[in-house]
Design goal:
Length: 467
Amino acid sequence: MAKNEGVVRAGQRMGILSSFRSRSVLLSPNRFISVHAHFLLTRLFSMNSQRSVRSNLRELSVSHLFRGTRPSGASQKRDQTPIFRSTFRPVYLLSSLLVAAMLPTASRSAEPLKILDLADDTARQVTVDREAGQYLGHPTTVLLEDGQTILCVYPKGHGRGAIVYKRSNDGGRTWSDRLATPASWATSREVPTLHRVVDASGIKRLILWSGLYPARLAVSEDDGDSWSELEPVGDWGGIVVMGFTEPLKQPGHYLAMFHDDGRFFQAQPTLKRPVEFTLLQTRSTDGGLTWSFPEVVQQDTAVHLCEPGLIRSPDGEEIAVLLRENSRTKNSHIIFSRDEGRTWSDPRELPDSLNGDRHTGKYTPDGRLFISFRSVPPRGKPAPFAGDWVAWVGRYEDLVTGDEGEYHVRLMDNTKGQDCAYPGVEVLPDGTIVTTTYGHWTADESPYIVAVRLRLAELDAIAASAP
């Protein structure tokens, strides 16, 4: 039995034809509506079963309807799809709207974004490191496979300085003293980033990046107990190397992304006027030990996209990258790839609820996304917690459609109003989120590192009790 047989029978009961076989057939508007409605119903229920019908309907978007083109994933066989002439576009849209009206809508779709504030909930806050008079900032974290050990690195200084290294063995409740590091880590000139990598044979390693020119890499073969010195990976560099290091479908293959503004990609700066921001990516085929010469993803003098943060779709077929917009004239942006980063969509703006810098996100056990970042709106646009450490809760579908999401949450109040929240985000096996970052948490004092622990069920309860 065909998996969409029920849809076909339902279509027949409504007087909808079960198929169309000739691309040359001339259809009246009424007959066209029937045929196209059946086409949409069949497509909706035969697309990726891991996605909701609502999400599949969005893929058959209005932009496709008015262009009269097939959506991505639609059959390209000419004998299965009629040629949609411009005269049929109005009825094409009408039939699509009729199908949409027949389908159930998620109950949350009509609900407005809820604004929550955890800044005064000090019981959630754990001080990771603090030193009087010393700037501590820009941490990244990695959770080991035991589900409890979290490693954390950060610089002694604003985006540069000797790398500090700490470990928590209990899911972020308590943290070690500062751990010994290789001598070269004291020479780091940029924000360090920490990543788990696994090669094609299954050997696990940790890698640590240190950026600017040249980009350098350190490796641990024993889950962070010992580390190599920092070594250049090539004749190139950049800023926030790497924004992410993502495993690809082929074992041992990784994609990483960073940006530059002309100052650090080469040994000699090539800064342009006006300044041009370039988004770059590099690949590894040996489990993260060596990396290709970077290729340009996007560059622009007007819109300055940087600090990429990656989210893979729940079905694994699509990659989304959230981007800071540094000219402060536009919202933060997002790009998509459905071919493992070989090609990318044009950048588009994110909703206001995701405006900010250094987006870092993870899925929780119920399938929702928790994305932590620094709230920074474009100039002239208000935001409830501008300059503070915030989080966004929603679903991957919201990123695709541009919806505001479910929650916009202040995690802590940054007393300076700027300069905070390059966050690490880890999700423990029980669903506890441990997010770690720096900020000016005490007025007139140097920034320090704090972790916040929470569960989405707790946010749900707070939201439900709000007036």
